[in-house]
Amino acid sequence: MSKGVLFDATKCIGCRACQVACKSWNENRSEDTANRGTAENPPHLSADTWTKMRFTEIEGKDGFQWVFTKLQCMHCEHPACATACIVGAFEKTKEGAVVYDAKKCIGCRYCMVACPFGVPAFEWDRPIPYIRKCTFCFDRLKGGMAPSCATACPSGALSFGDRAELLAEAKRRIETAPARYVPHVYGEKEAGGTCWLYISSVPFESVGFPKLGPERMSVFSDPLMHAVPPVAVVVAGLMTGIYWFSKRREKIAAHEDISEEKE
Amino acid sequence: MKESRRSLTAGTMILIALASIGFFVAVYRFIYGLGAITNLSDGRPWGFWISFDLYCGVALASGGFTMAAIFYIFCRRKYHDLVRPAIMTAFLGYILVVFALLIDLGQPWRIWHAIIFWNINSPLFEVAWCVMLYSSVLALEFSPAVFERLQWKVPLRLIRRIQIPLVIGGIVLSTGHQSSLGTMLTLMHDKVHPLWFSPMLPVHFFISALSVGLAMVIFEASLSAKAFNHDVDVNVLGGLGRMVPWVLGPYLIARVIDVIFRGNFGLAFTAFPQNLLWWLEILGGVVLPIVLFSMPGVRKSKSKLFWSALIVVLGLMLNRFNVSLFILEGRPGYSYWPHWMEIAISAGLFSAALLTMQLANRYLPVYHLGPTDDAA
Prior knowledge:
The structure holds two protein chains of two kinds. Chain A is an alpha+beta fold. Chain A has helices spanning 17-26, 80-84, 110-114, 138-142, 148-152, 163-176, 221-226, 228-262, and strands at 3-8, 52-60, 63-71, 90-92, 98-100, 121-122, 131-132, 158-162, 196-199.
């Protein structure tokens, strides 16, 4: 059964305990940051920051409000990174987590380009660099524990559980309090569905979530890749045929030359 | 000897200097990491190298399989003298691509992982395998030049015996990876601008590679004729030029119909600034060369052929830069402009390739294809 996490933006207080818990469980370095005129820090996900809170100041239904959204790997049902990876270093596990095998990675960074959510990060400053991203705390998940961020959340904004149940719960919340939420569970269908689900009081585009269709990212590349072997056979056959034909024409022409000379 | 006096001209010195700078930048990169010499970031993980060295490099090296097909498969014997130089530049081109990737990859010493860890769904996996195999094919196709020079009769006979299967294999592999470079972009259907995005991208890539293959052969043959003082028949180059509209024509139709069919043609007038790049690419890089190469006057003039071929080449480079960089959306909040050391790496590799070409021209029988079983 695929696990998931439901993030309810209406319950988030922006304390960033999840951000801290993530750093400490995964033993990630802290980053040098600068005052950018916002309490949001650091500016982006990175090799050392696998989750972060985004602070959006927005005019909502009831005037000005802060909306906090948590960014991390969405753990797609059909991960683009896994399709992209030349050496198959990404794996969608039965628990739902998309995990990365550092031993295979050659550092081509196609996963980073392909990811629709802008998640995988690269160790730019290291001579032996790897891709780094949220693992869904796969080490905890295997032991039946919730990811460290969900454990740390004090306000109930993060709920960990079975994805199917969380999806039902998300819809229940929207149904019970339609004034409180926009009628959209982000991650239910986006890019073929994700293990992380979001509900919020404002449209997701307004807090910088990418607008994505329900198709998996590999919807075009999969059939194209499947077409490679038949295309190869057809091209080889065609070339052989053309060669045979033009060779024969050449021989006939040469023969005619000789007979003309004889006359 | 006239040859040796010419050996260290100003041009050669500049190439040696550029290659050396590139070499030292590469050393620096391996000590301090990619971040130290590039402006690449998590928001723009692929930059100048992928666009120039990989996307343009592979396409511009398509002259090898195009000429091999024309000569060996279609048996157009008048292009005899252009085959071997085209194969040599293609071979050098692919070596250049591989070296560039060895700089660009995070862990180049693991490049062989693609051989043992398979992901058959990854378009990049297919590109890697095809490039690897096709480079070997090109090496074999070019090897007679070396064997002739060394007068090794046995391997020469062996290669000639497998010449046709080798050429067909090369065409299959080229079809595979030229198009798969387009397939790679379809995985980013959320980020490629709709004026360019299409599930037909691999087809667009393949046809445009054919056209630039022809153009590059015209371009290089004209240049090397000047550089190495040998004559090239304008009828031969004109013959290649005549083929260009037959390739670019279908390409133009495919591109335009695709945009109209997908309901995105309106963007050509509204999506500023991407629409300017689109029009420049379509009008300047496709329509203009179709017109030029259709004019008999152009096909009879060496210099006009040269400039028209250059337009095709530039148009293709604009296309590859567009799809892999300019109109491929990065992550929000990041910007990218190549670091001078990124350019220095590419310039260094390019200079090294030109120097190699110079040496090959001096020591190997490059400008004639030895007697082949097929050249009747």
